[in-house]
Model the fold of this input.
Amino acid sequence: MAAEKLDAFLVSSAANVRYLSGFTGSNGLLLVLSAGGAILFTDPRYRIQASLEADCRVRVGTGPLLGHVLPVLRKKKSRRVAFERSRMTFEMYQSLKEGLPLKSSAEPVAGWIELQRMIKSDAEIALIRHSVLVNSRAFERAVSGVRVGKSEKDLAAELDYQMRRLGAEGAAFETIVATGARTALPHAQPTAAVFGANSLILVDMGAMCEGYASDMTRMLFLGRPGSRVKRAYAAVLEAQLAGIAAVKAGVEAQVVDRAARRVLRRHGLERAFVHSTGHGLGLEIHEPPRLGKRDRTMLVPGMAITIEPGVYLEGFGGIRIEDTVVVTHNGCEVLTPTPKTLRIL
Ligand code: ZN
Ligand code: ZN
Done:
């Protein structure tokens, strides 16, 4: 902030507010002052919670929170006020601009806190590790009940229920369960479609535990898989292992993506791999870095990322295998304990 000659930084993303202040409520703005200190603004519903959680000054007010921030900025004579340009609504931006004194300016910044959040502390890695274990346990419990005649929605509900039973706040994202040709939709929403005899099932799930996300994709098969499924599965598994093997501190994110993509190209499946190889995760399910084709972010020990190549063949189905891993000096630690063989039920 000093280098950019900023007087104040208005943090509006809930995850960033939590990261910086400890406050977990859904309505909060954090004003970080260059002169030192920070003020958390929230509404009366969170008065007690904020006083327990936040490690900075708290101001409680009704109505739009910005209405309480602006008088502070005017009083402190803040000239240059930074805001999170990809995290603020246009409405709030307008109110900020109109509410600042004439000679003051609203300065857009992006990714500042996200950059810090990319590298996890030991305490954060412990929380992600716990989230991963809860997620895998919930998967085992729910999968034991998968039968012909159950629906995608039945399994998704069971997965979510088991996560909560095991201590999660809930799912880190809408649980994906797809069967048959619907597995070719990378972000399929569970429907009433039922599992038939000889059906491929894709499960992509993550738990949110003490604020930290996990993420895992596994494939199930009810009955006996045919050779096409087996071949595609073997290719994706090979690509996933190649991606994991490429993870190492000092390596660019794109190198990991290339390692996975190269394997699928060799199997003639490169064009069926329609997304990037992985993403960071933590307080949010999708965080930097992105492990994509042209992502040059250098991997650093303590980054928590997913490795999740997949292939999607319209009319046939899709295969994805995903683990949560932590970057180390010499490689990475795969946190996800769930076996990666195609689970035949
Ligand atoms: Zn996932
Ligand atoms: Zn993912």
About this structure: The CA atoms of residues 77 and 104 lie 8 Å apart. The chain has two domains: 8-116, 122-344. The chain has nine helices and 20 strands.
